[in-house]
Design goal:
This protein has about 130 residues and is of the alpha+beta class. The chain is about 50% helix and about 15% strand. It is built from five helices and two strands, in the order αββαααα. Strands 1-2 form a two-stranded antiparallel ribbon. The longest helix is centred in the middle third of the chain and has 26 residues.
């Protein structure tokens, strides 16, 4: 790590890579948008390893957003006041994680969520999945 960065940010002692990724996104027929994203990492400075890590991060992030939007209809939430949006987002993420960890029932997060709402025994099983 460059000495100047080490002095300014002593908590970054494991820093080995600074990276920038340009991404292009086009939704439907709209004009494409370009965005630069910056990353700091402890990975060795190898382009392929860095690209794999960035793609992996966004793959996980996109999958979570899809689950939250489809199964919990997060984009349709009308909650806008005070800490409500952040609190409910935390509860949704926790619920999505618990439902994904529960493996005895078949189906996706939305069907497991509905099942847990109808069946208290299954709800306790979902909650117990976090203890295993």
């Amino acid at each position: 790590m460059p000495e100047e960065l080490a002095q300014r940010h002593p908590g970054w002692e494991g820093l080995r890579t600074l990276g920038m990724v340009f991404s292009e996104r086009q939704v439907g027929n709209a004009e494409p948008t370009l965005e630069a994203r910056y990353f700091i990492s402890s990975l060795p400075p190898k382009v392929k390893a860095f690209a794999r890590a960035v793609r992996g991060h966004w793959g996980i992030e996109n999958a979570l957003h899809w689950v939250l939007d489809v199964s919990f209809r997060e984009d349709e939430s009308r909650l806008r006041k005070d800490h409500g949006p952040e609190n409910l987002a935390l509860v949704r993420r926790l619920a999505a994680s618990l439902l994904q960890r529960e493996t005895t029932a078949r189906g996706g997060v939305a069907s497991k969520r509905k099942h847990a709402g109808w069946n208290n025994d299954y709800l306790l099983q979902v909650l117990g999945a976090s203890l295993q």
